[in-house]
Amino acid sequence: MTVVRKSIGERLARLEAQRKTLQIRLSKQERAIDTRRKVLIGALVLHRLANDRDVQIGGGLAAWLRSELPKFLTRDGDRDLFD
User: Fold this and answer.
1) pTM of this prediction?
2) Considering the domain boundaries, does residue 74 fall inside one?
């Protein structure tokens, strides 16, 4: 029985392909975590705006959002969501 060994170049190419695959998976995982953080922060802000009776928090937050959001949103479709 003859065992055919792969060359170092072939093994390196296979390892590089595996590294790229893992890097893509890591990037997807990091984006998913970032998206989840944004959703949770947004949920907190919306909850405070809807339920906080403290004018300092609810009113101040609403005023801040009215001031900052138009500068932050660059796409028309995003702006339409807040009309």
Assistant:
1) 0.67
2) yes
